[in-house]
Structure formats: C-alpha cells, structure tokens
Write a structure and sequence with these properties.
The protein has 9 helices and 6 strands. It is an alpha/beta fold. The structure holds adenosine-5'-triphosphate. The site of adenosine-5'-triphosphate (ATP) has 18 residues, from α1, β4, α4 and α8. One of its GO terms (molecular function) is ATP binding. It is an enzyme of class 2 (transferase).
C-alpha cells in the first residue's frame, strides 16, 4: 500500500502561516508525509491575483525551502484554461492508480462552500477531504442535507485515510490562524507590517518584487 499523499490547492496570493501551520499540524496528526501545493489558475471572470503565476510559485518556493513535507505541482498553471479541482484529481488518480490514498486539503471556509464546486459530489470518489479549522467560520454545514453528507463520510480513525484510497472526510484539530491573503495584501497596500503573518523569506521576495504596492 502506498503512503497517503495530500494536495493543497489555493491561489496563494501570497502563501501565509494560515496555510502552512494548520497543514503542518494536520500532517503530524495524520502521519501524512507529503503535501503537494497546487497553485491554481484563476478563471478570467473572477478577480485576478495581484501576483503573477510565476510570482505566486516563487513565493511558494521561498515558503517551503527547508520544509521537506512540502513540494509544488504547477500543472494547473501550465494550462491556458482554468482547471476544476475535480479534473485535476481525476488526472492525478489516473497517474497514481486506483489504490493510492489521496487527500485534498481545504480550510473550513472551503468545506462550507463545497456545494458550489464543480461536480463536488464526485470529489470523495477520488480523494479524502482533509479539513483544517479556520477561525470565523461555522463548524456546521449550512443545510441539513450537507450536514448529513458530512456526517456520513466522517472518518473516525486516522487509519481509514491510509488504508482506503478515497471517500472519507477528516476534520483535523488544527491551530487557529486568523490570517487571509486578502488581509496581507491590504496591510501591504497600507504600509503595515505583516511580520507574524507569513515567512520572512516570502516577505523578502514580496519586497524585492515590489508586490502589493499601489
Ligand atoms: P484570499 O484572502 O485571497 O481569498 P486565502 O487566504 O483564503 O486567500 P487561498 O489561497 O484562497 O487563501 O486558500 C487556499 C486554501 O487554504 C483554502 O482551502 C482555504 O480554506 C485555506 N486557508 C486559507 N487561509 C486559511 C487559514 N487562515 N486557516 C485555515 N485554512 C486556510
């Protein structure tokens, strides 16, 4: 049986401690050895990231230097078209085979928003959902049907994530970081310090690239 491998998708404009720290705690808790960061292509009709795709990847590289838990997969940026998470997971599943346990990491806000995701009902046939807590978001789903769906798929033993290739939801007990990329960009635009919010190496990169300045 192959080891559980998790993917963590995001815009990462920029990556911050609210991404890194909960995922490190999740990994410790679940015995997860590898987390692949999956920077996404933002669809043209949505507000575009301030940093370019190249800059977002460069910031990921700065953030994970010396952290063997993480690597980066830029496949979603290499396409011209925005990619659905479900499509990326189908491709990964085809590459890795039916038996590989795969996890997809999301924050609590993304879990609540899941019914809006393209073909969200198919996600659990492709991966486990590993959910990090995020302050300021309800812990219950917004409708009784969604709560039932969640309850039906909850993993109660971490072994289920390693022994089965997909199909479970793990609500991790992760430390709360009240940080968002939006707030970091806002602070930078107002010349406010972001020291405790993201790794120093990422701040250095942002300074050098002149990002998030008017
Ligand atoms: P923005 O403020 O630009 O919307 P963000 O800070 O929410 O960005 P994203 O790159 O959109 O970051 O998030 C990627 C993933 O990380 C999502 O699944 C989101 O739920 C999760 N996430 C982001 N910030 C946190 C946080 N502070 N705690 C827990 N999870 C988080």
């Amino acid at each position: 049986m192959s080891e559980l491998h998790a993917l963590f998708g995001g815009t990462f404009d920029p990556i911050h401690f609210g991404h890194l720290r909960p995922v490190e705690a999740l990994a410790q808790q679940t015995g997860l050895q590898k987390v692949t960061l999956l920077p996404n292509n933002v669809p043209p009709h949505r507000p575009q990231p301030e940093a370019s795709a190249t800059q977002r990847v460069a910031m990921l590289r700065c953030a994970i230097a010396g952290l063997p838990l993480f690597d980066i997969d830029t496949r979603e940026l290499e396409r011209d078209t925005p990619s659905w998470t479900v499509t990326t997971l189908e491709n990964l599943r085809a590459e890795r085979g039916a038996q590989q346990p795969l996890g997809f990491i999301i924050g609590q806000d993304s879990l609540l928003n899941l019914p809006k995701w393209h073909r969200w009902q198919d996600l659990l046939s492709l991966c486990h959902l590993l959910v990090c807590q995020r302050p300021g978001y309800p812990t219950r789903m917004s409708s009784p049907e969604m709560q039932r769906w969640l309850d039906q798929h909850l993993a109660h033993d971490v072994k289920q994530l390693h022994l089965q290739p997909a199909g479970h939801i793990w609500l991790a007990e992760t430390p709360l970081y009240d940080i968002s990329a939006t707030e970091i960009r806002r602070r930078r635009h107002h010349n406010q310090s972001c020291d405790a919010l993201l790794p120093a190496a990422v701040i250095d990169y942002i300074d050098r690239a002149g990002l998030y300045r008017d």
